[in-house]
Amino acid sequence: MKSRGIAGLGISCAFFLVACLSLLAYLKIPSFLQLAVSRSGLSPGSFAADLFSAIPFDIRQNVYMFNITNSEDFFNGAKPRFKQLGPYIFRIGLRKQMTWSEGDLLTFRENRKFWFDADLSHGHLNDTVYTVDPIYAMAQEVIDELPEFLERLFRPLLKSRKVLFKHSVDELLYNGYSDSLAELAHLIKPNLPVIGGKIGYLRAFNDTDDGDITVFAGTNPFTKDKRNLITQWNHKKTIPYYGDGCNGIWGANAELFPSFLSSSPPAQIGVFLPLLCRPWSLHFNETRQENGIELARFATGLDIFSPSNSSQIEQCAQPAGWPRGVFDVRACQHSFPALISLPHFLHSDEKILDAVDGLTPNVTEHDFHLDIFPLLGIPVRPAIRAQINVRIWRHLDTSQSNNPPIVYPVLWQEIVLSESAISYLSTMIWYIILLPETTLRVILMLLTILSVSLAVSYAYTSFSKVSDEETESILASAEDSAASS
């Protein structure tokens, strides 16, 4: 009888142990998945590396142009009034040439190509835009710095022009336009983006790359938490445009980040895009749902394109002392007097926005954010947004007191995935990762409940039998005693 009780207790303990192990596995599923995914770094020939080398999704660039509607009043001192045109939509092709080296490093050179999609666009490439003449704007900046004989040569050329002109969207963006003054300026400043005798705001960025970018491949335990974090640009560990203290390179290229748990997202992530001159921070904002999957949104703060409260950084990265929300990119854009900001001057100092009419910033349409699936580190809904502005004066003589400089918005762009691509990507994540995880959770929970039920049931049955047998034995002994007496 005692042996039966011990056996029953043993079987019950076995079921209970299975229940505990099932429950532990249930609770540890995120950790197991995190470990498995984090070990799938960008190794040669891997599925992750193949996806990274040629991103197979529908990536688009939406460009919006600002057309001034009161040019005559503007030249007479009025605030410029703008009408937004677009979007002019371009499909983007990205392809990387990748090489691996010691130290678990991956170096890639990513080529970008843009194709106009007339069917999706709200406008045509032959639309005319009244905007800033980039050559005139640059001449305003440099004319006083030229030797006297060159200054005498250039001033008469500029007097026949104005800072604003009309050109088609095609000419202003990737195709460019011919300009004799641009060719002459190119002789003086060979690094100006004059290509084939033409210049355009985006002409230098089509079918080009940003040079060699070196990142951690994340294929070993020491670098798995650094996957795709940039360690060198063009084989240098610092940005060449700035001095010590503000020339560091950090962050990722916004295409892939180290994985993390959704329950403990990092407070911020770094993004380094050479077109934006230096790394910038995006801050964890909220958790969002996209087609059944949970995404962590990282968005801009008031520190984007802004003074950093570090005098050392300001002296070498933002020497002009611009107010919050605009960043001087002359150092990395061939001395062109451009400033970047968020679209419609979102998060910028109020005096920047008050100096123009027609811009209406809002977070939904104009913020720079990345919605990342934590386990893979992939941005499922990216919105990489930036606005190109030019510092101009209404008239050629920049020394006039009634001719203050103006931050003039030219265009803004966003790099996004199409809605169909977002739906496809989020659905694939659900079926490949989350559905198996959910199924496994259900199986383990049912196994836990079943094991506990069997353990309790078997223990109850075993001890009930033992108790009944002991009762019968006691009664039998009592009867024997009574009979013998």
UniProtKB/TrEMBL annotation:
It is found in: Cell membrane; Membrane, Caveola. InterPro entries: CD36_fam. Pfam families: CD36. It comes from the Eukaryota. The keyword Ligase does not apply. Keywords: Cell membrane, Disulfide bond, Glycoprotein, Membrane, Receptor, Transmembrane, Transmembrane helix. GO terms for cellular component: caveola; cytoplasm. It is a multi-pass membrane protein. The keyword Nucleotidyltransferase does not apply. Belongs to the CD36 family. This is Scavenger receptor class B member 1.
